[in-house]
Amino acid sequence: MKRLSAQKFAYPEAAHLLRRAGFSGSAKEIQSYADLGLELAVERLLYTSSDDGTEKNPFDLEKMFIERQNDKTMPGATNGLFGWWLYKMCYTTQPLKEKMTLFWHGHFATEIAKVESPFAMKLQNETLRTLGFGRFETLVQAISKDPAMIKYLDTNRNVKGKPNENYARELMELFTLGVNGGYTEQDVQQSARAFTGWTFRSGNPQKPEDNAKYINPSYVFDKNKFDDGEKTYLGQRGKFSGEDIVRIAVAHPSTAKFILTKLWNYFVSETISETALESLMTIWQTTNGEISSILRSIFTSQEFYANKNRLTLIKSPADYVVSTIRRLGYKPVPEQCYGLYNAMAGIGQKLFNPPNVKGWDGGTTWITDTTILSRLNFIGGVSQNRLPANVAKGQAQPSVSYQLPLGKTVAETIDALGILFLDAPPESALRRSLENYAAGKNTVESLRGMTYLILGSPQYHLN
Asked: Where along the chain do its domains lie?
């Protein structure tokens, strides 16, 4: 792929980069990326560390779990898990790290409704965050031993003589080779034997004496339940272990094509050119599937910034909610994190509870009669300086401190709202609609109405 010229990277390109590789940002944040230039802006996004602005995350799951044991009126660790990730998305100074965690969460979809452990789900989420930029095989090896995944796809029920094929099948169909990746039913059956004996240790959440084990779930290999016989898998034969199966699956040619196409669809467009795919395949091969190298190539390419690829992807509910909060520069309090999670769920994306093992389909499926109404209800509150919040009976709603921009004239206000929410002053039909609505009145009431019109416009639903 051809690299974008450094001279062509300005404010509009930085805004596009943050929309796709993060959750948008304030005008000040976008300008800071533009000032860095293309190469440093991309490196800033790819940089990860524990010092990411979320160190004071108020959602202490262990504390909340113990409080719930002693007082059933307390919210508990599962609710805490939901608030914990919302807080990270809204507060992080490393937005690509959370955007990639969201990508992998949809790829390795796991439902807390079946896992029944917020601690196992949090552990998996942290694994996706920590390993999501490294070699793909390293990530798949870790997820294969992840307690939440083991419980979700019944690997813990997979024993010698009675293999359970769930994980072996999804490993190829959804996680590596893809649906038409070239594997057979025999490959499923044979590889399932390699994952026998893979289980996990946890505890009973109803027994305080089990708290340490429940809070810290861990992978366990039961050698006595492992089938150590020879297996034939994807054209190779040997006394394969589960680790061997992952290694062979990741090395299969279909895997690179499947993962690279999925990353392209997530960040760039719904179709990938042969030229782009071949270029990324070369990088995959030379870096042994290092995801950060793939992302660097995508985010510095001409294709990523091409006009045909701007404002063409429908925002996921997570993107829609979190980007709105981040554009406002607002830092939600815990009660609002819960409320924002619920708003996101109402719009169609319940984090930690995807609809099935395939995750969310995305694209046009995000927009239905029900979800568009939920989006409009959400932005209706935003335009009135209200955010959803979960509060106890008798507790006052937390205050909202962000300020919508009111210029000296209607034209100034329209420009300011456009820059805030659309990264540029509104043009043509949208601008005329805003002018007609304001009818020359530059008041707080007209400001709120115009905010609602912009947030409800087709442009705002797109990245």
From this structure: 113-270, 410-461
